[in-house]
Design brief:
The chain is α/β, with parallel strands linked by helices and about 300 residues long. It has eleven helices and 14 strands. Strands 6-7-8-3-9-10 form a six-stranded mixed beta sheet, with helices on both faces. It has a four-stranded antiparallel beta sheet with strand order 2-1-4-5, covered by helices on one side. It has a four-stranded antiparallel beta sheet with strand order 12-13-11-14, sandwiched between helices. Helix 4 runs antiparallel to helix 5. It starts with a strand and ends in a 10-residue tail after the last helix.
């Protein structure tokens, strides 16, 4: 597994306030799963990936791969492959030259797998990547990453520039890598749909911190959309907060309050039992609703209106 223990990373250039790009991150990525890093632009997703593979050294805390510190450790780094969102240096080479380069630099690289994926994606192997479209370049570097046969494959904005049909193909390629080789895939995105459709676990990030993480269904089950009906006056948001509910959204329709809250159905039922209302509905939120609620709660997109 990859383990991050209270990792902090601060970039000092052009950062007079020394705002942390990563602020005390603790996380465990086990084998054989697909983790999605979900966050806004600037949330710290790319910095986290680069720290996980040993490109950046944490200012505080530690990152270990199968119990080995990854920083300045070639053996640990060999088990991790990062495909970033910037590949200008790759564009000077053709796919065949890239295959030769990766054979020399990545011990587990499989030219056979790379050729098979390039053929499946209908990508030319003799043309420089600079002649490819943005989507084609993304497909080619994803094929490179999968062909590295690393235990941990990290993809930064893996689906950017891909059309819907090709996104499905890439998702299937990544799923096969997990099933066939027991690899772990960690991909970053600010697209909730891509995370929902591609991953079984999610990490929601904002301003260098982790707000939520776990299996997607488990994370969504920590929130509820509830309807509280009263015969007298409509119960207020303040009354709900005083009862111990963590209220993330509130609106009124007739004599009912529509409320978004953190908590399981059992927790919510217990906290509303003493209130002069009846709980008529309680359903888990979707991942998109969870994401929007957490962003708004943390001050991002304050213009977002409650529905």
């Amino acid at each position: 597994m990859i383990e991050l223990d209270r990792v902090t990373k601060i970039f000092t250039s052009d950062n007079p306030l020394k705002i942390a790009a990563l602020d005390g991150i603790s996380l465990t990525i086990p084998e054989g799963c697909v983790y999605g890093l979900l966050g806004t632009n600037g949330a710290g997703k790319s910095t986290l990936l680069r720290t996980m593979c040993g490109i950046y050294r944490p200012d505080e805390g530690s990152v270990t791969v199968d119990g080995r510190e990854v920083w300045n450790n070639p053996e640990a780094k060999a088990d991790v492959c990062l495909i970033g969102d910037e590949f200008a240096w790759l564009e000077k080479m053709s796919a065949n030259r890239l295959k030769a380069y990766y054979r020399c630099t990545r011990p587990g690289f499989s030219g056979e797998v790379f050729d098979r994926l390039m053929e499946a994606l209908a990508l030319p192997k003799n043309r420089k990547l600079s002649t490819f479209s943005k989507g084609m370049r993304r497909q080619a570097v994803t094929a490179l990453g999968v062909a590295c046969r690393a235990k941990y494959l990290l993809l930064d904005e893996a689906f950017e520039g891909l059309d819907p049909a090709m996104r499905r193909v890439v998702r299937e390629i990544l799923a096969d890598e997990v099933c066939d080789n027991g690899a772990s895939v960690v991909l970053s995105s600010h697209d909730v749909t891509e995370i929902s459709e591609s991953c079984d676990h999610v990490v929601i990030m904002y301003a260098g911190k982790i707000l939520q993480f776990g299996e997607i269904d488990e994370v969504c089950d920590r929130y509820r959309k509830i309807q509280l009906v009263s015969e007298g006056k409509v119960i207020t948001r303040e009354e709900l907060a005083n009862a111990g509910l963590s209220v993330l959204g509130y609106s009124v329709m007739g004599n009912a309050a529509q409320v978004l809250v953190r908590g399981t159905e059992e927790e919510i039922t217990a906290k509303t039992a003493a209130l002069p209302v009846s709980l008529t509905d309680a359903v888990p939120l979707t991942l998109e609703e969870v994401f929007v609620c957490e962003m708004k709660e943390n001050g991002y997109g304050i213009y977002i209106k409650e529905e």
